[in-house]
């Protein structure tokens, strides 16, 4: 998709994961992430990101965590949902369109920078439809034992090409291109 139209940025699934493969703990808990990872940990990722497309569940988890110091300026925020909230959030644009249209809308807002995909369901749907260019994974040094897995059952095989891995403190960052 990155070669279509005027888009120059990539579509990147961005995930934080425990060593045992969970992106959220029991009850969708994600507070453990901020023990290791802040926006300052990966300034190059922040600089390359122009917009975020977020699933509704991830958006709700983020709202519950809003009291923590989790500021992450990834540009314009879009939430893909079948049921937009009755009370709007001025920091977010809610989209109820199809997935391809949502990705195109968010990519357009990214202004030539990368579009980050956040949320297990939205990411899996984007991967299944061939809309993702890269996967960026931050592996944290802990085992959660239970929670939301990195990929849902039924995702199917997605071939990846590793192209970068770096260490920043206790965080290991892995980057993969999605083979199309």
UniProtKB/TrEMBL annotation:
Pfam families, per database record: RibD_C
GO term, biological process aspect, one:
riboflavin biosynthetic process
GO MF annotation terms: 5-amino-6-(5-phosphoribosylamino)uracil reductase activity
Q: List where the protein spans the membrane.
A: none
Q: Which SUPFAM superfamilies match?
A: Dihydrofolate reductase-like (SSF53597)
Segments forming domain Bacterial bifunctional deaminase-reductase C-terminal: 10-151
Could you tell me which PANTHER family the record lists for this protein?
BIFUNCTIONAL DEAMINASE-REDUCTASE DOMAIN PROTEIN (PTHR38011:SF12), DIHYDROFOLATE REDUCTASE FAMILY PROTEIN (AFU_ORTHOLOGUE AFUA_8G06820) (PTHR38011)
Under which name does UniProt file this protein?
Answer: Deaminase
């Amino acid at each position: 998709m990155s070669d279509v139209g005027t888009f120059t940025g990539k579509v990147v699934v961005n995930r934080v994961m425990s060593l045992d493969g969970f992106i959220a703990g029991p009850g969708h808990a994600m507070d453990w992430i901020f023990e290791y990872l802040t926006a300052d940990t990966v300034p190059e990722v922040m600089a390359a990101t122009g917009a975020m497309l977020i699933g509704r569940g991830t958006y709700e988890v983020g709202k519950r965590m809003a009291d923590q110091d989790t500021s992450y300026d990834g540009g314009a925020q879009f939430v893909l949902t079948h049921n937009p909230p009755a009370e709007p959030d001025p920091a977010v644009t809610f989209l109820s369109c199809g997935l391809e249209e949502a990705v195109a809308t968010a990519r357009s807002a990214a202004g030539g920078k990368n579009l980050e995909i956040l949320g297990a369901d939205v990411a899996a749907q984007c991967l299944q439809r061939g809309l993702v260019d890269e996967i960026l994974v931050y592996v944290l040094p802990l085992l959660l034992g239970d929670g939301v897995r990195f990929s849902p059952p039924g995702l199917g095989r997605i071939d990846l090409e590793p192209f970068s891995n770096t260490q920043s403190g206790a965080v290991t960052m892995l980057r993969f291109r999605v083979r199309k």
